[in-house]
């Protein structure tokens, strides 16, 4: 017999960073707030709903946001405060279920098929979570309720801000049919244009194309596209997803040549190492084996260089030294200028695996 449908809730805080700023500073309430540093290199971290009316969006260059909304109030981001509020919200989630998959500071999936509270439905659980968030943080959240993660995420955006929407299993096909195909996860502008060449503009249109044709054009992604169009998503909520990479990066105020980047690499290595030590404490000492250097050129070309040394990096200094040495593997012309640098650690393994690998190289 088939197992009963999962009950999934996707909770998304409303204009999170901007809402925290408006909560903590009453003079900002009702005004267009843009969370960003000013300057040509800055990007928008968040925009209040008052600013979004003018077309301001996250990840937009701050200078463009200023042109779109000259009256906007720019507030530099304060991630210490945002993380503190995120922890409050996470504690509220944990009262209802242990199956929590955070996507970022301001959103998460919850599997509430079985709950700690005994509430009868996922709808009631979502309502209780949103009410607690409002009462305890003075902020609002929107929620989507469905039988899988894909549908729940779409639903949470349906009645924003401070709203809730439920897609019941028998409603999924009809709900999806008229949506623009761009609403499907993984369908960006390029894929949308390729689908348009096949006469596909809506999710319902995807169903009219044979699976073999979709696979012929898009490979394995074609099958995933077909499944999503049918409302199928078997991916579970993963509450203990292991960290794949810890990194820190920074955009320079002015483009720099490669030889002038070392102080920035060392500063970012310090931040990355601090995050790595926190990860080791929370994940029973998982060890990172690979050092990653990321660079972005003035013309937005992204490069990464990595090294997995024979011995795992044992200190912040070793991490910084290896990251600096990785610059030698960059083979662009000497005149190239860089706008961004990042330092990361990846290739995580369990401590036991590390010991076994060390034994292989012994003797």
Descriptive account of the structure:
The protein has helices at 16-24, 49-52, 62-68, 79-94, 122-137, 149-156, 172-176, 189-197, 203-206, 211-218, 220-229, 262-282, 316-325, 351-361, and strands spanning 8-13, 33-35, 46-47, 73-75, 100-104, 107-111, 141-146, 164-166, 245-256, 287-297, 302-307, 338-349. It is an alpha+beta fold and 363 residues long. The chain has three domains: 1-167, Alpha-Beta Plaits; 173-229, DNA polymerase, domain 1 (Orthogonal Bundle), CATH 1.10.150; 245-361, 2-Layer Sandwich (Dna Ligase, domain 1), CATH 3.30.1490. The protein has a five-stranded mixed beta sheet. Strand 7, helix 6 and strand 8 (164-166) form a beta-alpha-beta unit. Helix 4 runs antiparallel to helix 5 (122-137) and helix 10 crosses helix 11 (220-229). The longest helix has 21 residues, at 262-282. The termini are far apart.
CATH architectural name of the largest domain: 2-Layer Sandwich
Helix-strand category: alpha+beta
Kindly state the percentage of residues in helix: 25-40%
Distance between the termini: 56 Å
Low-confidence segments: 354-363
Query: Strand order across the biggest sheet?
Result: 5-6-1-7-8
**Whole-angstrom Rg:** 23 Å
Share of residues in strands: 15-25%
Largest sheet: 5 strands, mixed
Cofactor: Mg(2+)
Domain UmuC: 8-188
Subunit structure: Monomer.
InterPro entries: DNA/RNA_pol_sf, DNA_pol_Y-fam_lit_finger_sf, DNA_pol_Y-fam_little_finger, DNA_polymerase-Y, DNApol_IV, IMS_HHH_1, Rev_trsase/Diguanyl_cyclase, UmuC
